[in-house]
Specification:
heterodimer, A: about 525 residues, nine-stranded mixed sheet, 5 helices, about 10% helix, elongated, B: Immunoglobulin-like, SH3 type barrels, 3 domains, eight-stranded mixed sheet
Chain lengths: ~525, ~475
């Protein structure tokens, strides 16, 4: 079918010479779709069937074109299947581009019928009892949503009799192709062989950054490794391809930058109502036939991608991806050309830092609604935080693309997961706080001891006094931070049992607690009522 | 039965005449608008009979808006126009056969023997009821294969929607007739490729018109022109697709806060059509069904452009995590700036050259129709290395219906070059004023303050200010 369709395309454009570029000489892909960047990361993770198209990728193909003088049409075969055609551009071709076309009028059973109205076809019926085949000439009168045929001047419908029937077409209607086709009509002054770059955007590939932090036995340092995972959800295999990923948040328009969806003509039987019994048999047969079709389907449709089909290849690459600047983003190049097969994921290391010092902090942020609940006597648990500085002097100092950090800690039975947190795009110089979860043995008991109104000249203020008991039941000394959000008009601390610091809109009190240590904090805050 | 047959034969003969004349000498002109609408002008040479005749046009757009059709030819008056969209399907054919006779061919599933009988269709409701001789049967109630043979295709059932025009011609002979109508399914927009050189503060801009045909029809060898501008189109209130389009437009306008630009002051070189701009395609072209076609219309080099970092705060808030600054590319489409063209609405995709000299995509954004001489800002994304952390230091009451806010913006730059961040702070209302500030502000409007905050390479700068405003 592929050859037939191609031959027709060649015939139908006899006016201009067609040059077919069958495949790129080489391809480079740059991935933009960082999975962690999308707010629906969890949804996508849990509901992979819904993942339709995948993230944005820029494909750069090197092709060799033998260009004649004059006007010719270059047909580019073998482009990525989820190409966004309006982004296609060519570099290095000394010719004027008259127009660029993307044809996605595909050769489907429905399209063949729709384009064959008035054509002579053959109707072949097979007798299920005797196996005898009858072959008659017919004229196609309508379809594909219910096919009506003219046979010997009389009118009959296809697939309504319960007989085994099929149509045979003498030819493929012109203009229908087996795959979407990108072409450019160009005009050149002189002939020549040219190496050109065909650049375009496509959908179908995602990447993510994942980090593993191993806490050293000393409890003060960690080893941080970073991995880039490339996932190809598309049906296109990129063989021996230099691959890059871009970290940072691009402005995107997911609605406009989309492969065009063809208006599919579906072949369907719209028959007159038939007897109940026959209908049930037909439905059964239809179902069976459909199941067979599904099994034999070699090509996947774009909306049937399934992550369970994604093959994971060797998870250890001896080389690290190298980072360089791309405008205001960070670009990581996979060290060697690689083959990214259809429905495959691939892992590459990009970061390996050992002996990164950190401090473990226990933190509690007060929520006034919850502490004002007089019936809630349960002690609150502190959150465990790992605090790092992304600075070279602090053992790190590397741009960190957003991703998920898994913190591993040595336990009695070997390494175990201490917690996971999401890291935002973190430039060099910024502090990092990773939340690991709630600590079992560090507790806080806040309660409101006084709430009253202080009347003023033109407005009233409210004063709230809080008493907090804090305790450390761990066998090691800890640092505990108690944070009170400073919100509300005229907010201020009017009395406190220990001096505070202000950071990021929070009032903070910090305690060092030895094993079994206890502390009490009392403070009063005032703000407009 | 007989009467029915004759009527059909006449219709076929007439349509044959019109169709035979149509393909040769057909000249098509397309005027395509932004909003899924096109005007088709179809000039064909037709051989008119004197007096009344009926013309069928089967090759018009499948998405035609039939109420907009006009046919004009010298010495020809339109009697009436019909648009038949009752499609020929087996089910429709059976419904039209109620009360008429059909042939029934039953195949014996055991031995394959065929028995042919004549039947009258009594009803088509939840099953076909037939009268065969004096028996009443349900078609295929026994599941045995049964063919139904009809004598003719019923009148008014067609394979595709068909336009027919009854005309009165004062003389016989071949003449040019112009058929014009509006159709949906054809639309266009602009796509721009901006290759930005940050070091040189220049960009190269290519503009492409992207034309999409999903009308169901191929337009061969047509003279095509594209109209930029939002023309007013009256749609039915229950046109849900249009309602969706409106909602989408509204949403997009909200999203486009950053793509603000200063209004244009120059007259473009384009040919204006009333209040719109027209882009004729340079050559006749075939617009195939299910096709996206691109034709270049701008190719400008060395347009003055610069990159700025922006941060916009619509209110006084504290962020626990730093926010990334927006990266915005600014340029002008005045002729002095090097571009000198009005820009129809579309997508701007920005690329930069990487160290290997090859372009890499860095972001995209929509623009509206932009008159020549405007300042254009395209947000390409967020800077990895330039961050802002806003903190409300103090919020106080400053009298009746007045508040005082002390803010701190900690700007960090992890790049190896010094840079400047433009911070815009909204939230000033009645009698808003600055009491203190660490950097002198400007006031783009009564409700907004703006600071240019310089930050050293690998450094940080703190912007602190106190404002008072009524509310």
């Amino acid at each position: 079918m592929r050859f037939a369709a191609l031959a027709l395309v060649l015939l139908s454009l006899a006016a201009t010479a067609d040059i077919v570029s069958p495949a790129p000489d080489s391809v480079r892909v740059t991935l933009y779709g960082n999975l962690a960047a999308s707010s629906t990361y969890e949804e996508e993770e849990s509901d992979t069937d819904e993942t339709q198209t995948g993230g944005l990728v820029m494909v750069s193909e090197t092709r060799t074109i033998d260009l004649p003088a004059g006007t010719s049409r270059i047909v580019f075969l073998g482009v990525a299947d989820a190409i966004v055609p309006q982004t296609a551009g060519i570099e290095g071709l000394p010719a004027a581009i008259i127009e660029s076309n993307f044809d996605y009028d595909l050769l489907t059973p429905g399209a063949v019928i729709a384009r064959s109205h008035g054509e002579r076809v053959r109707l072949v019926r097979t007798d299920s009892a005797t196996g005898r085949m009858t072959d008659r000439e017919a004229i196609l009168r309508s379809g594909p949503e219910g096919v009506v045929l003219e046979i010997d001047g009389k009118i009959e419908a296809l697939d309504c009799s319960g007989l085994s029937e099929k149509l045979i077409f003498p030819r493929v209607p012109p203009g229908l192709a087996d795959e979407p086709r990108l072409s450019m009509t160009v005009r050149a002054d002189r002939p020549g062989r040219h190496t050109v770059q065909l650049n375009y955007l496509a959908l179908g590939m995602d990447w993510s950054a994942d980090y593993v932090a191993h806490i050293a036995p000393d409890g003060e340092n960690l080893d941080l490794t970073g991995w880039i995972t490339l996932v190809n959800r598309s049906g296109t295999t990129f063989a021996n391809t230099p691959a890059e990923v871009v970290a940072g948040q691009l402005a995107r328009d997911e609605e406009e930058t989309q492969p065009p969806g063809p208006t599919q003509l579906n072949e369907s039987t719209s028959c007159w109502p038939i007897g109940q019994f026959a209908r049930i048999i037909e439905q059964r047969m239809f179902k069976r036939a459909n199941e067979g079709l599904m099994r034999s389907a070699v090509f996947g449709s774009a909306d049937q991608y399934d992550l369970s089909e994604v093959v994971v290849t060797g998870s250890r690459v001896p080389f690290e991806a190298q980072m360089r600047e791309l405008g205001d983003y960070k670009l990581y190049a996979v060290p060697e050309p690689t083959t990214i097969a259809a429905r495959q994921s691939k892992h590459v290391s990009f970061l390996s830092q050992s002996h990164v010092p950190f401090t473990r902090i226990y933190m509690f942020k007060v929520d006034e609604n919850s502490i004002s609940d007089k019936n809630d006597f349960e002690p609150k648990r502190a959150t465990t935080l790992l605090r790092l500085q992304n600075k070279e002097s602090d053992g790190l100092g590397k741009p960190l693309p957003r991703g998920i950090v898994s913190v591993m800690e040595a336990g009695a039975g070997g390494a175990m997961l201490a917690g996971q947190d999401r890291l935002d795009d973190t430039p060099v110089g910024l502090p990092i706080e990773l939340e690991l979860g709630t600590a079992m043995d560090v507790w806080i008991e806040p309660r409101i001891t006084e709430e009253r109104t202080i009347e003023g000249d033109d407005h009233d203020e409210e004063r709230i006094s809080v008493e907090v008991r804090l305790g450390n039941d761990k066998p090691v000394p800890i640092t505990l931070e108690y944070r009170q959000p400073a919100y509300g008009e005229g907010f201020r601390i009017v009395r406190e049992s220990r001096s505070h610091s202000m950071k990021e809109g929070d009032v903070r009190w910090t305690f060092r607690l030895r094993p079994g240590g206890r502390a009490v904090l009392r403070y009063s805050m005032q703000r407009s009522d | 039965m007989n009467r029915y047959g004759i009527g059909l034969a006449v219709a076929f003969a007439l349509s044959g005449q019109a169709l035979a004349a149509s393909p040769e000498g057909q000249r098509l002109a397309l005027t395509i608008y932004n909003r899924d609408l096109a005007l088709i002008q179809d000039v064909r040479s037709l051989d008119f009979a004197a007096g009344r005749s009926r013309l069928e046009f089967k090759d018009v757009s499948a998405s035609i808006r039939p109420e907009t059709v006009t046919l004009a030819a010298t010495g020809v008056d339109i009697v009436e126009q019909n648009f038949d969209f009752d499609l020929l399907t087996p089910e429709k054919m059976m419904e039209k056969a109620v009360g008429r006779q059909v042939q029934i061919v039953r195949t014996n599933p055991g031995n394959g023997a065929e028995v042919t009988e004549t039947a009258t269709v009594l009803s088509v409701n939840n099953g076909v009821v037939l009268k065969i001789g004096d028996r009443i049967e349900v078609l295929r109630a026994d599941g045995a294969p049964t063919r139904v043979i009809f004598d003719k295709v019923p009148e008014n059932l067609r394979a595709r929607p068909t336009l027919s025009v009854n005309v009165q011609s004062n003389a016989a002979g071949r003449r040019d007739a112009t058929l014009s109508y509006l159709t949906t399914g054809l639309s266009w927009k602009a796509d721009y490729v901006a290759l930005f050189d940050e070091q040189a503060n220049k960009l190269d801009m290519q503009g492409w018109v992207t034309l999409t045909n999903k009308s169901g029809t191929t337009f061969n060898d047509a003279v095509t022109q594209l109209v930029a501008g939002d023309i007013n189109i009256v749609r039915a209130a229950d046109d849900w697709q249009y309602q969706q389009y409106l909602q989408q437009q509204q949403y997009m306008q909200q999203q486009r806060a950053l793509a603000a630009q200063r209004g244009g002051t120059e007259q473009g070189a384009r040919r204006p059509l009333a209040d719109y701009y027209v882009y004729p395609l340079p050559e006749r072209t075939t617009v195939a069904d299910n096709q996206t076609k691109q034709v270049g219309f701008i190719d400008a080099h060395g347009v003055a452009a610069r990159k700025v970092y922006e941060y916009y705060a619509d209110w006084f808030t504290t962020l626990n995590d730093p926010a990334h600054a927006a990266v915005v590319v600014r340029f002008s489409n005045s002729s002095r700036g090097g571009l000198g063209a009005q820009l129809p609405a579309g997508m701007v995709r920005v690329y930069v050259r990487d160290t290997d000299g090859k372009p890499r995509f860095v972001g995209e954004n929509r623009i509206e129709h932009i008159p020549q001489g405007s300042e254009i800002s395209v947000k390409t994304g967020e800077a990895f290395d330039v961050t802002v952390q806003p903190t409300v230091v103090q919020q106080e009451r400053a009298g009746f219906w007045r508040s005082r806010y002390s803010m701190e913006y900690l700007v960090r730059n992890a790049r190896s070059q010094a840079t400047t961040l433009e911070i815009r702070q909204a939230g000033l209302w009645r009698e808003g004023k600055v009491l203190e500030e660490s950097i002198k502000s400007t006031r783009p409007d009564a409700y907004t303050l703006q600071w240019s905050v310089p930050v050293a390479a690998n450094g940080e700068t703190k912007l602190a200010f106190t404002v008072e405003t009524g509310w």
